[in-house]
Amino acid sequence: MERLRRHNEKSLHDLQQLFWESTLRCNVSCRHCGSDCRSVVTQPDMPAEDFLKVIDEQIVPHVNPHKVMIIISGGEPTMRNDLAYIGSELSKRGFPWGMVTNGMLLTEQKFKELRGAGMLSMTISLDGKEEDHNWMRGNKLSFQNAVRAIKLAAADRRLTWDVVTCANRRNIQYLPQLREFLWGIGVRRWRIFGIDPMGRAKDDPELMLTDEQFTYMLDFIVSEREAGRRVSYSCEGFLGDYEGKVRDYLYQCAAGISVASILIDGSISACTSIRGKYYQGNIYKDNFWDVWENSFKNYRNRDWMRKLEPCNTCKMFRYCEGNGMHLREENGELMLCHLKRIKKNNN
After folding, report:
1. CB atoms within 10 A of CB 341
2. Spatial separation of the C-alpha atoms in residues 241 and 124, rounded to whole Å
3. Were 214 and a residue from 75, 209, 223, 254 both cysteine, which residue would form a disulfide, CB within 3.0 to 4.6 Å?
4. Which of 157, 165, 185, 87 is nearest to 125 (CA)?
5. Among 56, 71, 240, CA closest to 162
6. Residues 96-109: pLDDT tens digits?
7. Where are the alpha helices (DSSP H) in 44-189?
8. Is the pTM of this model over 0.70?
9. Is 58:286 a contact under the CB 8 Å cutoff?
């Protein structure tokens, strides 16, 4: 039944979530950044009118706007002075929208401005208590500003929001203490994920969890969920026996199936973590909807992964389907297999 459902979703490929990489500018310097964002970048922000033109001319005629969630990401989206304007324009068109933020610029005034512009959801990053978070984010003010943002969100009962934490070798042992802190300031939805060997993290051994630590993280999430708390592992990666225990759904990489993105240079992709040759077009020369309908073939049919190691000998391929697209190198090689890590640690 689950495989039939997946097949139908690929066939229909209803667009349900659209990411917009609105800027590469950022006011922190995260050790694990996959985009290598900085406060000063050579790639300018995409003009609001370019993004809204695609929305109006190439997406609105084909979808029910109320059923397509637009997530504004970066870089740090609050670096844009026109963020509230863009949000209000999306709201006028009927699109629900939200953003992913580090909270640095999210003052009470800015928060009210964005809520007034129709912002319905928000994800805030917080990676540990003050010393650990600031070490991870490269800014001594990052923790206090993230906490301020969390408290603003917690006081708003109509906003859908959560906190996301990057588990690493430095903070992994403090997850129970971090949960106590988060719940103490009003958090009720918490997502945890490991860090993949890409971007700046590729050459930073302090960030990558050992196989034992990775399994500890999953066991921690299981115990939290059994205690009734809304803690979950992120969407990435097939987890074998942990499936059904650490998330509210069974694993499926929705990239290119129900999720698309428009990147800073206009490239059309799936989730914003996927780069390189997996681009499907560019809004400055291609029609977004034509690309969505007729491209993304290597996303919707993963059989090409069966020919590559370790998938070519794996009996779980029918369930995993080659893992998340963001874990694939440009040559198709799988950077990381969570199932292998779990099995190795349990042997």
Report:
1. 22
2. 29
3. 209
4. 165
5. 71
6. 999 999 999 999 99
7. 48-54, 83-92, 108-116, 130-137, 142-154, 175-184
8. yes
9. no
